[in-house]
Design brief:
By secondary structure, this protein is of the alpha+beta class. The protein contains 13 helices and 24 strands. Strand 8 and strand 9 form a beta hairpin. Helix 4 crosses helix 5 and helix 10 packs antiparallel against helix 11. The longest helix is centred in the C-terminal third of the chain and has 22 residues. The N and C termini lie far apart (about 50 Å). The N terminus is likely disordered.
């Protein structure tokens, strides 16, 4: 069934329509306080590799959504259904449950699309026990993401915990875990938590008294989109609305450190946007810390426009590749291998890597302790990156991707789009896409020489919505690489195979 969506609330800003979704926070009290979390598959396009609570998009079978009570009931039914589909846990229903074999058979039919959950259980005399749940917040995906959700969270307290049975697909695993242990894993950079999950586990770790009200106590839990994403302790991504290329609307700044900090890629001079960045920086330096430097990944306007404003506010130096200096005065020119050491409760080490391809001025920044990569415009999780000669070079770009793939980063902050925990999968997919595009070029030329215009039409036939000018520039980058490798040759007005 197509996902349902609702319009954005007035004043929230431009963004894709919100899809209705729901999630279930299951708590077990026996023999100790534990919470059920699931690990999302690294190949999952939304929050791949993150830990979260079970849940997903609403289906028409979950019920009508006209009116607040009807909407909450439909979202609750969604949370119960999704939890069963993802973990096999049958919770919050009244009536005699079918045995485990019958539950497994129903789950297989539902996941295969051969049955619907609610009609199936209602036929065997089961119904939803609404009293078993408490609505505990409503989180809205930030505006920078291409896929956005309006997700209602519900809490249910169980006695004995039932072991989850996660079938690999959207998820890779699930387990019951003590909240303190979950937070310790997060503090040690060993897991990455979705923002609602991090907040909820912090609250649950303090006890279950007035839990629903305490979970709803922050603005973000009341349908207020967050302006930042916490990835690890002292590592925060702050999307800023910038003058950039569609489909992106924001450029990701990053704040690394929680004492001494660096600010990476403040891409706008708009005070209303920088306010969100300043709030994160001020919180990170509140204990007497400072901004050690502003780091720039490359010279493009949507990554450097706020550098002078941040420099002035925090009396901080601006560092970047020498070729950035035509856009922003630099206090220090960075080179391959330069390291920034940051002190604080979570000490950080940020390594500069020269990664040309999108731009000759391009640097990536790798935080070694958490293995977090600030990739700049080497990577966009909204689509492919433009490689525009002469500043862009496809050979350099693919070599840079191969190089950062060897870092074995566990979290990637892209120049545009949501962060990724499935870094190896993401980089492999980007490389494969470029190789696929070159394969289409070579295949198209097998029939004989072609003009560049006809070649572009053929090679980009699979993406009819691609802007012709950008497709032409990216094709030029691919042709330069193939000429460099001796696989094609060019004559005035046409392109042909080298053989």
């Amino acid at each position: 069934m197509p996902p349902q969506s609702i319009p954005e609330a007035k004043g929230a800003g431009a963004g894709p329509p919100l899809r209705l979704a729901a999630s279930l926070i299951l708590i077990s009290l026996e023999p100790m306080l534990r919470v059920l979390w699931v690990h999302r598959s690294e190949a999952n396009p939304f929050l791949g590799g993150f830990h979260s609570f079970p849940g997903g998009r609403m289906s028409p079978e979950d019920g009508p959504t006209d009116g607040e009570d009807a909407l909450e009931l439909a979202m609750l039914r969604c949370a119960v259904r999704e939890t069963f589909e993802e973990t096999g846990i049958f919770v919050g229903v009244q009536g005699p449950k079918p045995d485990r074999a019958a539950q497994r058979a129903l789950r297989e039919q539902v996941l295969n699309g051969n049955a619907e959950f609610w009609p199936s259980i209602e036929r065997i005399g089961l119904s939803l026990d609404r009293s078993a749940f408490r609505m505990s917040g409503r989180w809205v995906t930030p505006h920078f993401s291409r896929a956005r959700f309006d997700t209602m969270f519900f809490v249910a307290e169980l006695g004995q915990a039932e072991a989850p049975d996660v079938w690999p697909g959207e998820l890779s695993s699930g387990e019951w875990i003590e909240p303190d242990r979950a937070l310790k894993l997060w503090e040690e950079d060993r897991v990455t938590l979705a923002m609602p999950t991090l907040y909820a586990i912090r609250v649950i770790a303090e006890g279950t008294h007035d839990l629903s009200a305490r979970l709803r106590a922050v603005p973000e839990a009341n349908a207020v989109p967050s302006r930042h994403v916490i990835l690890h302790p002292g590592i925060v991504m702050v999307p800023l609305r910038t003058e950039t290329l569609a489909p992106a609307t924001h450029t990701n700044a990053a704040v690394i450190g929680d004492g001494e900090v660096v600010v990476i890629d403040p891409g706008t001079a708009d005070p209303s946007e920088l306010k969100s960045l300043y709030e994160v920086v001020d919180a990170a330096t509140a204990g007497g810390g400072k901004v050690a430097a502003v780091l720039l990944t490359h010279r493009h306007k949507d990554h450097v426009s706020g550098a002078d404003a941040v420099r002035g506010r925090y009396d901080a130096p601006v560092w970047g590749h020498p070729l950035v200096s035509d856009r922003v005065p630099l206090d220090r020119e960075l080179k391959e291998g330069d390291m920034v050491e940051l002190t604080g409760p979570h000490p950080r080490r940020v390594l500069a890597l020269h990664t040309p391809g999108h731009s000759r001025s391009h640097l990536a920044f790798f935080e070694e302790r958490s293995r977090t990569l600030c990739a700049g415009d080497l990577v966009s999780t909204l689509g492919t990156v433009v490689v525009d000669p002469p500043d862009g070079n496809m050979g350099d770009y693919m070599r840079s991707l191969e190089r950062i793939k060897q870092l074995k980063a566990t979290v990637l902050i892209p120049g545009h789009g949501p962060p990724s925990r499935g870094v190896d999968h993401l980089l492999a997919a980007l490389l494969e896409h470029r190789r696929m595009r070159e394969s289409r070029i070579l295949k198209s030329l097998e029939a004989g020489p072609m003009t560049e215009e006809l070649l572009r039409e053929e090679v980009y036939r699979d993406t009819p919505g691609a802007p012709p000018a950008l497709a032409a520039r990216t094709l030029e980058a691919h042709l330069e690489r193939l000429v460099e490798e001796g696989r094609i040759r060019r004559e005035p007005g046409r392109v042909m195979l080298a053989t």
